[in-house]
Amino acid sequence: MENHSDRWESIWADIQRIRAEAPLVHNITNYVVMNTTANALLALGASPVMAHAEEEVGEMAAIAQSLVINIGTLSAPWIAAMFQAGEAARRNGRPIVLDPVGAGATTFRTATARKLLAELSPAIVRGNASEIRALAFDERSTRGVDSAYESEDAAKAADRLSGQYRSVVATSGAVDLISFGGMTTRVFNGHSMMPKVTGMGCTASALIGAFAAVNPSARDAAVNAMAVMGIAGELAAEHSPGPGTFLVRFLDALYLLNESDIRERVKVRES
Amino acid sequence: MENHSDRWESIWADIQRIRAEAPLVHNITNYVVMNTTANALLALGASPVMAHAEEEVGEMAAIAQSLVINIGTLSAPWIAAMFQAGEAARRNGRPIVLDPVGAGATTFRTATARKLLAELSPAIVRGNASEIRALAFDERSTRGVDSAYESEDAAKAADRLSGQYRSVVATSGAVDLISFGGMTTRVFNGHSMMPKVTGMGCTASALIGAFAAVNPSARDAAVNAMAVMGIAGELAAEHSPGPGTFLVRFLDALYLLNESDIRERVKVRES
Amino acid sequence: MENHSDRWESIWADIQRIRAEAPLVHNITNYVVMNTTANALLALGASPVMAHAEEEVGEMAAIAQSLVINIGTLSAPWIAAMFQAGEAARRNGRPIVLDPVGAGATTFRTATARKLLAELSPAIVRGNASEIRALAFDERSTRGVDSAYESEDAAKAADRLSGQYRSVVATSGAVDLISFGGMTTRVFNGHSMMPKVTGMGCTASALIGAFAAVNPSARDAAVNAMAVMGIAGELAAEHSPGPGTFLVRFLDALYLLNESDIRERVKVRES
Q1: Using a CB-CB distance cutoff of 8 angstroms, which residues of chain C are in contact with residue B202?
Q2: Inter-chain contact C50–B33, Cβ cutoff 8 Å?
Q3: CA nearest neighbour of C128 among C104, C163, C159
Q4: Which segment of A142-156, B28-42, B89-103 scores lowest on mean pLDDT?
């Protein structure tokens, strides 16, 4: 595994820019994780806003620097708002991040995620291996919103999905895969306690929204955000007996991240 | 008070099975507690999923091992989804847990809880004393979602409700009563800080969903889940100055529970 | 800065009454903060209830001691419920607190907040400087739900808004301004970590609801609640490395607040 010096410098530059500019990240996300993702964005230095009414999402997406769409607790009125917000973000040249939570578990989620992909061309899609396989290969999942696969098992699915929609695809797991243009970057940071906290995947998607707001390369934004998730997870796990303490320390770690944390810990194998 | 050796063995067997199988627990629950209950289910070892759209609840309930319906922040579209999900769970032979949050506080909640009881025949109903009395005796409550009574004050109401709908009725409080077939089991585990954290009752209902997914006896599932709630509460309270720390340690305790915690602490008086 | 002895006595009397009476505070609030505000109200000693269905909000508002309306994740059905609940609260003589989250960020929020102000005459409005300026002067905001101004920058706007709707206006920031009848009281308690946690403003509004339930003076209720927010924030920040720990300790601090904390820490400059 290589530890490219330009990678930690890119991550650290993004963090400094997020802290300095506090980009407004518009989230249309699920009820379960709204609080956690808002707190994670604030701890990192970004400014989160949640808005889902058709009457306002276009206006909100227009003043935001990026848009994160998460289908975790989907319903018809929210889908309409996702398309409206997505179109406003596109008109204003703002990057869109799509989190297809539970794709493969129900037809409704799979079909909605596909339609969002086709019509909004999100810059970045982040999901677990089951979700990425479901979208690429029409696989059904019986694990709800948890993955039945390792991320490597979705490497081909990620390549295919990326090619089909011209999106960067981030497949998260013990190793995170960031796939684009036939190339795959791997992020080895992270900790086994992360799947024991709800919404860590959704939080990764939200943080990608913050990085995409300051980094014009969607691929770099995804790699940098996943590395920061993993590093904060490692720091949080150090003295955490269980997932309750872990989440508290994860938010602290995002807030406290410094240059040497990034430089010494980042484990990315560039494609 | 007796401390039956078969009780702790039953609890420990259920926990081991939940950790090994990670049963999918489908929750249609309220906005306030979604995050907490999802984290509690994950900490215990189960796999939570939240889904409420009519377009998908039938499919989700069909792949889940149990269904938890909680009326804490009710609205008409969610009620329709509760019935759809409940019917799918019944068709697939999955146990249903009903949490009638705030029954007695408004006509809407009381009437909805009654209709869910009558049409879905949930295996287990868990509520506080005010809620159980409201459903059994048509009492009005003016305490919102908090109880105006001790659980013993609802013992007769619980018997009646259990007989009427053939459901196990768990009435939670300082002592938890699990009523079925004219018999009452009492769980003496717990801590006075638990009512100072929002959603501890809802979390009990969610954990019952996990136990019911692995234990074919609805009564045992309810008793075991209430004992585990109480034991985790006792462990969490040990070094908690207030409810903020308590909730963090409660999630840690669920994650860390081991055989001796259960064996040494369980305080159940069998009926 | 003066530290009036009657101020800490008023605060402490309110806290004791909240703990003794556990007033029912009905919240129609946003998805992001529901859990945090419910936990803060419980930690303080109040009894929170969240209900938003048109079928029940009138009944719930009628049994509650106060109503808190927060437009943080607005949609049309919720607006209808806000008006229904507000009218029931007015009919029953219960104080209403309005939190105009994100007013100025979208036309939908600004217009809804104005209509709630005009039709419900809330006893107290609490917002940040951008929100108060948006409502008083029609200013647009591009910072989402965060403020682009210091609270002092909204002093004139707060006076104007207060005069127009005969409401107490609490403008929160590093210094909190409580404006009514051309007079302004300033609360200097608080800590710079508070804006790094989502929903601290919403929590202030919820706590104002608890204080307004026991204190007949809307102005005193607002001043006392803002002082308690600030004092709990100072206590929480003492050993908090970051916002994760801070929120946990903030809830502990609300639960543990004692007479000497209030007497020694309160920093209020009376108007």
Answers
A1: none
A2: no
A3: C104
A4: A142-156
